[in-house]
Every structure is written in C-alpha cells, then in structure tokens.
Amino acid sequence: MESRPKAEREAVRTFAAWKWMVSVVVTLLLLLVACYFLIPVVWLLIAATKTQAQLSSTGIFSLPSHWALWHNVVLLFTYSHGIYVRWFINSAIYAGSVAILTCVVCSMAAYALAKHVFRGREATFYLILLSMMIPGTVAAIPLFVIEQPLHLVNTYMGVILPLVASPFGVYFLRIYIRDVVPNEMLEAAKVDGAREATIFWQIVVPIIRPALTTLFLISFIGTWNNFFLPLVLLHNQSLYPLPVGIQLLLSLISTPAADQSVPIYQLVITGSLISILPMIIGFILFRKHIVTGLTQGSVKL
Question: Which of 79, 88, 174, 281 is least crowded, fewest Cβ atoms below 10 Å from its Cβ?
C-alpha cells in the first residue's frame, strides 16, 4: 500500500523533470531563431550609424567613434531631389490602399461564403484555395499583358488592383466568420428587418475586427515588401515603391557612370533601415489584435 504512492510520486517527479527539460530546449531553440532574425537588423542599425569609410575600416558589430546616422538620413532624403521620400510615399500609397481594399473585398466575399447558402459555394471556396498555390511571380507577366491594353501599366492602380484579390484573405476571414459570428444573431437581425448591408457593416464587421486588423497588417507588409510585380509593371522611377527604389540604388554601385562621390552603400543601408520602421511600429501597436485574430477563430475546413 505504501509503495504505490511512492511510485506515483516518482512518476510525477519524472514527468515534471521531463517537462522542464522540454521547456528549456524549446526556449533555447526560440532564442536561436530570434537571434537568426535579429542579427541582420542589429547589423543594419549599427551600419547606418557609420560613414562609408568607417563601414570598411571597423568591425561588423563595432560602434563608430563618431555617429553619422543623422548625416546619412539627411543625405538619403536629399539625394536626387528627394527621390527616396517619393518612393516612401509610393509604398505607403500602395500598401495602405491594398490593405484597406483587401479587408473590404475579402470580408464581403468571406461573409457570403461563410453565412449564405447558394449553388456552387463549396466549389467556389475550393477554387479560391487552389489559387493560393499559384506563385505571384507566375502571374506577373500575364498581368502585364492584360493591363497594357487597359492603360494600367505604369500607374498606381495597375499595381494596386491585382493585389486586392487575396485568396488567403478570403480563406482566413471565411473560417473566422463561420466560427465566430453566431447564426442566431444574424437571424435575429433579419427578423427585425435589417438589410444585408446593415447586418454586414453593423454586426459582422465589429465582431471580426481582430481578424481584419490581422489581415490589414499581413496585406500591408506583403505589399510594402512586394518587389517583382512593381518591377514588371512600372517604368517611371517616380512611381517606384521602396524595394524597387533601393534595388535601383544598389545597382548604381556597379554602374561605371555613377557619381563615385556619393556613398551609395550608406544610402542603401540607411534606406533599408528606414523602410522597416513602419512594419515594426505596426506590430508594436497592433500585436494584441494580431494574436486575437490568429487564435480566436478555428482553422478547420
């Protein structure tokens, strides 16, 4: 009788020790992953504080004796009549417009697929899922061919419109709406005489706000970092977003006709550092909404 409780205590201690070891291993792995992603950012931050001479004469993670961050920022914003500021504004226009329109279009489509019964609903949903398997780079050239006769090439709308139709956004919001929005609430609103537009904007949208915030940030960041589609569709440098503009600066390093007196490396490094600030600020401000939006809904089909 006395050996059984003792064996149980040993089993509890063994399980607790095993759980602690697993927790330590997982924590160490997460720290390694965090370092893997943070080390380039730390280097970028340090390199942006150096002049071009200090960049080649000091260690990778060595702090300079005299910080040149402000000088580099001023040089970047005044280079070529402030073209970097124009690229920054362009990225904000592209990313902001795509994020807002994606939330509106995808939420409407997801609401119809989640709460309305019609012929071909499941086939439409699985067709949307199938389109998620097509890489965006594959569609870039066909989009160019389609947009050219419509006079959308080399325009803001030519970049914005193709990115609004997000299969992931429809899938994500459809799952969320199906599992979070109660059918009883919708039926009660219909009994009270509410129209579909009223039900959607005043009932569904407030409930799915965390998911919309998550989708907004995902769309914003994806468009902000989009490189290939603007590269294919845009030819005017004044319409370039930041990724294409920074790549243009980087290409000047190997251009013989480029002005050698301009520290291109510092322009690229400082421009890259400034380009990631909106994403960092967005995650800091909306991190709670992101966690809620990703965890509150179910992920089953």
Answer: 281
Query: Do 83 and 208 share a structural domain?
Result: yes
End-to-end Cα spacing for the chain: 51
3-state secondary structure 267-288: HHHHHHHHHCHHHHHHHHHHHH
Handedness of CA 213, 214, 215, 218 (dihedral sign): positive
Residue 140 near residue 228, CB atoms below 8 Å: yes
User: Is residue 129 one of the residues assigned to a domain?
Assistant: yes
- With contact defined as beta carbons under 8 Å apart, do 215 and 172 qualify? yes
Residues in the chain, overall count: 301
CA dist., res. 63 & res. 67, Å (int) = 8
The domain in which residue 47 lies consists of: 3-69
- Spatial separation of the C-alpha atoms in residues 182 and 59, rounded to whole Å: 59
Q: 151 and 93: one domain?
A: yes
pTM (predicted TM-score): 0.85
Q: Which residue matches tokens 């160490």?
A: 28
Q: Where are the alpha helices (DSSP H) in 225-263?
A: 228-233, 242-251
Q: Give the pLDDT score at 300.
A: 44
The tens digit of pLDDT for each residue in 263-299 reads 888 899 999 999 998 888 877 887 776 666 555 554 4
